[in-house]
Design goal:
alpha+beta; seven-stranded antiparallel sheet; about 40% helix; Protein serine threonine phosphatase 2C
Amino acid sequence: MGPGSYCVLPEPELTSELSRLAAAKKIGDVSCVSLQPCPNPDFANQDRYVIREWALPGGTWNFTAVFDGHGGEETVDHVAKVLPSIIKERLSAAISTADCELPSNTVSNILSHSISSVDISLTQDLSDLFPGGPEAIGRLSDEAIRNVINDRATGGSNNAKVLRCMRGSTVLVSLIDPMAQNLWVASLGDCQAVLGIQSPSGQWEATILSSNHNGNDDSEKARIHSEHPDEPECILRDRVLGAIAVTRAIGDQVFKLPSIYTKRVFENCSPGFQLSTPIDVFLGRNKTPPYLSNEADIQHVDLRNIDARFLIMCSDGLVDLYVYDQERTGSLQAIANKWVELVGRAMAQNPSDNSALSLLRDALGGDDEERVSQMLTVEEVSKWMDDTTVLVQSL
């Protein structure tokens, strides 16, 4: 963090301010926080989360999700609105036609196909605006394209479709069946899900259920290089095309469509891109799209023989708070172990407390009141930490 001025808050004011800024709450059995302390509205929190109970044939299913938006809020808001309904509708239809309990792979397929279908629909919406594809776009003037896509004065339907393709969102979803015997986790991007299980000896053990779809993950690098074997710069400086950290997401069509869509459509859109890397720096590397995937990884866990358990779901901002602290950096598994120990201890001491808030407090500096105060009150016009959302769910 930079040298900006900050205010040291005494207790209990510090805890109260953290709780306020993070909008700490409990929704049923889920403790929730979501923090972006920068007061500049240009850097408003682009994380979203959704918690639902679905009364379906055979009982109530629990749905929980974290969405990490980037480059703008349009895509993440859309995904948070439409994806839960799509999953619920497909799950309900599968239950209604099943002769017995749904096989775990059926639920896994519902999650995977629902997530990819949202991304496909974004591409289709854009394609419908320009029938004929790249060749037709190439024949249009800039003015003609702007007349199609910058229609905010008449409702903005087309503009919204284009913006949802320009922005992006990761997806992390958990689903629990009515008897709490099965847990499914779907991950697209680099949010994290960690299952905490208490062993018979009383020790808490951490199992990472999410994938790390990020340019610093060796398996993701290898996958993208194998898909683009003659393009050494498809991954550059641990970023796709040298520009974006995540390797899988919804939206981000600049990395999925031929470059003419960016040059002729996206660059004529108002408002424009909100990317940290200028378009002209990396667009020349876009030779054989897509470079980002919309295929989620799914994990299923049988919970029937596990008594004490909870699930931590978070955006990558929580991981970053540890990784960027040199005194506490370690592997993702080491960080997950620390989370589970901390939450297990917090739940044992006071089950009614918000354990997600305890986890966020530790990530910001724990008992170091000056450091936590600095993270909350430093006077900067740009954000100094990533948006950070944490959900802790008792299973």
